[in-house]
Amino acid sequence: MIRNLAADVRAFTSNAFLVAGERTVLVDPGNEFDVVSRVRDATGGLDAVVLTHTHSDHVGNVDAVTEAFDVEVRGFDPDNDLVDHAIADGDTVVLGDHDYTALHTPGHKDDHLCFVRADGEVAVVGDLVFSGGGFGRTDLEEGDRPRLVESIEYLLAETDDSLAAMHAGHGPSVEANARQHIEYALRAARSR
Questions:
Q1: I need a surface site. Which of 15, 41, 58, 154 has the fewest CB within 10 A?
Q2: Which residues touch 8 (CB under 8 Å, ≥6 apart)?
Q3: What would the pLDDT profile of 68-124 be if each residue is shown by its tens digit?
Q4: Cross-strand partners of 48
Q5: Gyration radius of the chain over CA positions
Q6: Residue 73 CB: number of other CB atoms within 10 A?
Q7: Where are the alpha helices (H) located in 52-109, listed in sequence order?
């Protein structure tokens, strides 16, 4: 089960997805809210933190979470002070009860990752794409529109019509026709 612990938060934060199961993982702990108590209320503990990327709205709560639960943080860039273990493109990452394939998807930020469940039914996409065909900003440091377009193409190539759910770093999750939202994002990113 994937649950957004930041769903009702009114602060400068990303979504913070708790993926419960055999290996309970917090994907992007968010920023400027008490995610620790929300994790405790939901599951009692964590096995790991996984980062889609290291913009402050996604990682501001990392220190509080690692201190409270004594867990390691996994992300793309092992040279980043927050990252204990690197996740490379193509690596398998266990979130909850399922294996996910990590996709390195720069363009919004150089260390950006998406995760596609092995059965193809679920994707966690960070700030690469959003519900309704939105896509990540490229006007921030490390932003690069052509690379972002290539990354959206990569995500699209690694999914098919079996993609039922997409969980993005901001806004609502998509629970039906998720791949269509990636297609819309690709068209929009190419045209602007």
A1: 41
A2: none
A3: 999 999 999 999 999 999 999 999 999 999 999 999 999 999 999 999 999 999 999
A4: 25
A5: 15
A6: 22
A7: 56-59, 62-69
- Does the structure show a pLDDT above 90 at 152? yes
- CATH code for the domain in which residue 126 is found: 3.60.15.10
Cα gap 119→131, rounded to integer Å = 21
Whole-model pTM: value is 0.97
Sign of CA dihedral 186, 188, 189, 190: positive
Length of the chain equals: 192
Q: Cα–Cα distance between 62 and 47 in angstroms, integer?
A: 14
**How many other C-beta atoms can be found within 10 angstroms of the C-beta atom of residue 97?**
12
Which has the closest alpha carbon to 157: 177, 174, 179, 135?
A: 179
d(CA 9, CA 153): 32
**33 burial via Cβ count (<10 Å: 0-12, 13-18, 19+):** buried
Q: Alpha-carbon distance 123 to 85, whole Å?
A: 21
Phi (first) and psi of residue 33, to 5 degrees: -155, 165
Residue 76 contacts residue 46 (beta carbons within 8 Å): no
In the chain, how many domains are there? 1
Using the structure block, give the residue that is written with the tokens 């019509």.
Answer: 161
Per the structure block, which two tokens stand in for 137?
Answer: 């900003």
Enclosing domain of residue 45: 2-191
